[in-house]
Amino acid sequence: MTTDASVPNPQVPREARRRRTFAVISHPDAGKSTLTEALLLHARAITSAGATHGKAGRSGTVSDWMEMEKARGISVTSAAIQFEYHDAVINLVDTPGHADFSEDTFRVLSAVDAAVMLVDAAKGLEPQTMKLFAVCKQRGLPVITVINKWDRPGDTPLALMDEIQTRTGLLPTPLNWPVGEAGDLRGVLDRRSGDFLRYTRTAGGATVAESVRLDAADAAKEEGPAWASAVEESDLLDAESQNHDSELFLDGQTTPVLFCAAVANFGVQQLLDTLVEFAPPAEARIDIDGNPRKVTSPFSGFVFKVQSGMNSAHRDHVAFVRVCSGEFRRGMIVTHAATGRPFATKYAQQLFGKERTVTDQAWPGDIVGLVNASALRVGDSIFEDERVEFPPLPLFSPEHFRAIRPVDSSKHKQFRRGIDQLDHEGVIQVMRSEVRGEQAPVLGAVGPMQFEVVEDRMVHDFHADIRMEALPYQVARKTDKESALVLAGTRQVEVFTRSDGTLLALFSTPWRLQAIAKENPKLVLIDIANAT
Ligand code: GDP
User: Fold this and answer.
1) CA of residue 169 to ligand 1 center, whole Å
2) Rounded CA gap, 260 and 268, in Å?
3) Phi and psi for 417 in degrees, rounded to 5?
4) Residue 447, pLDDT score
5) Ligand 1 test: best mutation among 34, 61, 123, most atoms within 8 Å of CB?
6) Which atom of ligand 1 lies at the shortest distance from residue 148's CA?
7) Helices 157-168 and 225-239, interaxial angle, to 10°?
8) CB 1, CB 327: distance < 8 Å
């Protein structure tokens, strides 16, 4: 197919408007996998819940596919799932649940247009949720809050609203309000229509629950005091102007709230409707010079994740690209902004967990997996015709450090290839120093579990057994050449060059860092902790 990219394609704005690209942020166990399954079920992408789950007693997995994930029950990698819902195309990008993979999550959040913050009704805002929320806030992502597990005893809804407001600074604007307290879910009051959506149990939540809608009069007859109290509390919210306002939501000042029981598929359809109605479509993206790249511009996108070894039968290397503008056509030749070299997109796929389908076409907001794209690194931009580069994805400040070497020194080639690859994928940061030598890299991680991923991947994907030795450093600071010379001769400090060229000084403790900075205030010691 040949298409002249200089002629605007009217399909582009239409398709971009249909897209809703989002991620779910939550603390482990809040119910993210269950919700993902339920969303797919509602969208009729799968026929019965359970097909996506890798956990206890259930078979198969769509969004979690690595062996390690199954073993640990946590999501190490991110997958994107696409499905249609009414006239919308939903792209759900999975985020790793564990705090150790926050860097990965940060990258995922750079590829989405909105986030769903999933909260366990009994636990409120847990630490990992807050950490991820902070990233959303920093990125200016609109956040929809979903209070899950409402079928179980938990906090009162008003207490939860208070907690959200105090801890996130967002004004909660509930779209529905529970009827019956947590643990005795009768249904919800749809605050816009005033109707009652009755909760009907389904056997194990395995099929789409039928939602029964009753008007207020019937609800009052059926639910009596529980209904009256929901209406009263909803009126209270009215009085505080806690009603949805699109502008304030998109501006990151308010968060619409829904109550649901993902395991029973209750409230899930409302979430889909909310995404379609309120979440932003794919829109212009700001480039490295601060200019918006309109969705109608020729094709462009950026790599937010690189991964290999996802399919042990085919040793491959997939670069996940978020389409920012234009039409993506499989086979098109794009330019790799970092090198200026052409790149052929012959092998483009969409990943539905383990299932892959070839993608012939994609639009702004979509996620495309480019197979065998070994030249592409995390953060790289690609474009057609009109050059554009999107801002690089920042690296976090590492807090854990290990020296690494091959067990069998004759396997040095495999070792080197493996380390380079994992560096490339952003699995771990790789640093070297003149003192230690080119052959003795040091790995830096935000969370120690990243080292386990390295170990696993080195053995299984690169056939290079490794030995790691923990290094006695706790803090890293970015420095410059001049300061590095001074620091190199200082006790309990070691200076490295990270593979992106950044000079990093590692300090044994925060106190040692403080003392050195105080002794020598002229030293350049930049805190890159929050990746800004
Ligand atoms: P994740 O770690 O966030 O992916 O959480 P999971 O989806 O694996 O859910 C953790 C546990 O909570 C599982 O045992 C689920 O069955 C359970 N769970 C999820 N949603 C609900 C819900 O709405 N109600 C109840 N009672 N349990 C739920």
Assistant:
1) 27
2) 7
3) -65, -45
4) 85
5) 34
6) 23
7) 30
8) no
DSSP line for 397-453 = PP-EEEEEEESSGGGHHHHHHHHHHHHHHTSSEEEE-TTT-TT--EEEESSTHHHHH
- The residue assigned the tokens 């959506």 is 197
Q: Is the pLDDT of residue 388 over 80?
A: yes
Q: Is 96 annotated for ligand binding?
A: yes
Write the burial class of residue 327 (CB in 10 Å: 0-12 exposed, 13-18 middle, 19+ buried): buried
Distance 80 CA to ligand 1 centre (A): 20
- Which of 411 and 228 is assigned the larger pLDDT? 228
What 3-state class would DSSP assign to 146?
A: strand
CB of 30 shorter than 6 A to ligand 1: yes
Q: Is the CB of 33 under 6 A from ligand 1?
A: yes
Confidence of residue 111 (pLDDT cuts 50, 70, 90): very high
∠ at Cα 531 (527, 532), nearest 5°?
A: 90
What does the pLDDT read at residue 376?
Answer: 87
Return d(Cα 249, Cα 116) in angstroms, integer: 13
Pocket probe for ligand 1: among 263, 268, 270, 271, the residue whose CB has the most ligand atoms within 8 Å is: 263
In 376-446, at which residue ranges do the beta strands (DSSP E only) sit? 381-383, 400-406, 429-432, 442-445
Would you state the structure tokens that stand for residue 312, as one six-digit string? 């042990």
Q: How far is CA 155 from CA 159, 173, 343, 423, in A?
A: 7, 18, 53, 43
Q: Which of 29, 39, 53, 117 to mutate to test the pocket of ligand 1 (most atoms within 8 A of CB)?
A: 29
Comparing 363 with 529, the larger pLDDT belongs to: 363
Half-sphere exposure of 127 (CA within 13 A, CB side): 4
Confidence bin at 288 (pLDDT 50/70/90): very high
ipTM value = 0.99
pLDDT of res. 383: 97
Let me know: does 337 contact 387? Beta carbons within 8 Å. yes
State mean pLDDT over 188-215.
79
- Report pLDDT digits (tens) over 80-102: 788 889 899 999 987 765 666 77
Question: CA 445 to CA 422: how far, in whole Å?
Answer: 12
Q: Which carries the bigger pLDDT value, residue 146 or residue 412? A: 146
Residue 124 and residue 235: Cα distance in Å, rounded? 23
Strand (E) positions, 359-424? 361-362, 367-371, 381-383, 400-406
151: Cβ below 6 Å to ligand 1? yes
Residue nearest atom 15 in ligand 1 by C-alpha distance? 31
pTM: 0.83
Question: CA end-to-end span of the chain, whole Å?
Answer: 42
Helix segments in 147-257, DSSP class H: 157-168, 216-223, 225-239, 246-250
Cα dihedral: 402, 408, 411, 414 (round 10):
-30
DSSP code at position 100 = G
| CB of residue 129 inside a 6 A radius of ligand 1 | no
